[in-house]
Amino acid sequence: MLNRFLSFIKKHALNSEGEKWLLAVSGGVDSMVLLNLCHQAGFNISVAHCNFNLRGEESDADAQFVKETCSRLKVPYFEKHFDTKSHASAHGISTQMAARDLRYAWFNELLEEQNLDQLAVAHHAQDNLETILLNLARGTSISGLRGMLPKSGNIVRPLLGFERDEIENFAKQESIQWREDSSNASDNYKRNYLRHQVIPLFTQLNKGFYSTFENTLEKNLEVEKVFQEKINALKPYIEKAEGGYRFSKDQIIQSGIGAFQLSELLKPFGLNYEQSKELLLALEGISGKIFTTKSHQFTVDRAYVFITLHQPNKLESFLIEERQGQFSLSGQTYKVERLNGNIKLDRNSAKAFLDFSKLIFPLEVRTWKEGDHFFPLGMKGKKKLSDFMIDQKIPLNLKDQIRVLTSEGNIVWVIGYRIDNRYKITEHTKEVLSISPN
């Protein structure tokens, strides 16, 4: 088994000369065999053991067993105790998920603190099969069908090519001691149910099931690589735009990609498969449809879909008093000044020059709302603000960032775009209110 172990490591380039591994050792047969093989191979190893305090004295006995084994083998040993149930309760997750989060966070800390290169875990072929079956039950993509990889980031899985029976038989032949986790006998856990009730049916149908399964994984891995190449070729479709990113509706439609490919392309922005199906339908519909994820907002405009950070509009209106010298808005500071009427006008729309005598203080800065209207400078008559924004070709994804300055409820300035004609400076203006970015 040692030769196969070393061949697997070489085939998948899991260990470079001089690398230092941190082994995750629970005390069970899989991790104890991993420890034994690494020790026989002469690898530079340290051991980390997690005590999750879930099985009382049994958990403490596991920790003591691993510690004594490492002492005998002269292997550096690290141990940490966790209040797993409290962590699970505080974060609203299962005990198993809490244990996973806690141990991997600690493992990463150890890797950095001890200057270690890789984390080696004892996942084997049956663990991989259980993972794929769970993925199928929950719903999965191509990556979920190829299972765990021998190397993923800084995690290596040197036993992935071995079946559980092989590992246990080797342990018995080599007189390797291990601890049995009593919770492994219970079918209350999903993995245990698969291990005890489901997987034996597959092995009854096909005695060489694990060999067939390994071949299937290799095929799926090739398929995933081809698929990823296609997704990478589509990435240039997403281009930077004001406030975020965008992609052309026509370009996506003409590419003929399906919802799954679109969901993988937009995965960094949090769009899931079901939303991708709806988004594809919306591309050929009326503009204005909005999709939100935890992190981003997708706005279907006339020719493009805009992607911006999902930041719900939380601006509360605020007042500007008559003698106030400045105010801040969306991270920008504005300078407020009173000037005499004889000034040279600056046509920069980022600034406002208003007839002071026509303003009633306090002025109010607020978010625009449906039904807002004003008299845009340079235009005749009244116009709905929503129509004005269309005329200005303001993308839908930026409309919720529009703010207005009002006087007694009347819009004085669509900030950054246009003042109201009623408040413009005339030959009769004696005093000007100037507002400009500072």
From TrEMBL:
<dbReference type="GO" id="GO:0006400">
    <property type="term" value="P:tRNA modification"/>
</dbReference>
<keyword id="KW-0436">Ligase</keyword>
<dbReference type="InterPro" id="IPR012094">
    <property type="entry name" value="tRNA_Ile_lys_synt"/>
</dbReference>
<dbReference type="GO" id="GO:0005524">
    <property type="term" value="F:ATP binding"/>
</dbReference>
<dbReference type="InterPro" id="IPR012796">
    <property type="entry name" value="Lysidine-tRNA-synth_C"/>
</dbReference>
<dbReference type="InterPro" id="IPR011063">
    <property type="entry name" value="TilS/TtcA_N"/>
</dbReference>
<dbReference type="InterPro" id="IPR014729">
    <property type="entry name" value="Rossmann-like_a/b/a_fold"/>
</dbReference>
<keyword id="KW-0963">Cytoplasm</keyword>
<feature type="binding site">
    <location>
        <begin position="26"/>
        <end position="31"/>
    </location>
    <ligand>
        <name>ATP</name>
    </ligand>
</feature>
<comment type="similarity">
    <text>Belongs to the tRNA(Ile)-lysidine synthase family.</text>
</comment>
<dbReference type="GO" id="GO:0032267">
    <property type="term" value="F:tRNA(Ile)-lysidine synthase activity"/>
</dbReference>
<keyword id="KW-0547">Nucleotide-binding</keyword>
<dbReference type="Pfam" id="PF11734">
    <property type="entry name" value="TilS_C"/>
</dbReference>
<protein>
    <recommendedName>
        <fullName>tRNA(Ile)-lysidine synthase</fullName>
        <ecNumber>6.3.4.19</ecNumber>
    </recommendedName>
</protein>
<feature type="domain" description="Lysidine-tRNA(Ile) synthetase C-terminal">
    <location>
        <begin position="363"/>
        <end position="435"/>
    </location>
</feature>
<dbReference type="Pfam" id="PF01171">
    <property type="entry name" value="ATP_bind_3"/>
</dbReference>
<keyword id="KW-0819">tRNA processing</keyword>
<dbReference type="InterPro" id="IPR012795">
    <property type="entry name" value="tRNA_Ile_lys_synt_N"/>
</dbReference>
<keyword id="KW-0067">ATP-binding</keyword>
<comment type="function">
    <text>Ligates lysine onto the cytidine present at position 34 of the AUA codon-specific tRNA(Ile) that contains the anticodon CAU, in an ATP-dependent manner. Cytidine is converted to lysidine, thus changing the amino acid specificity of the tRNA from methionine to isoleucine.</text>
</comment>
<dbReference type="GO" id="GO:0005737">
    <property type="term" value="C:cytoplasm"/>
</dbReference>
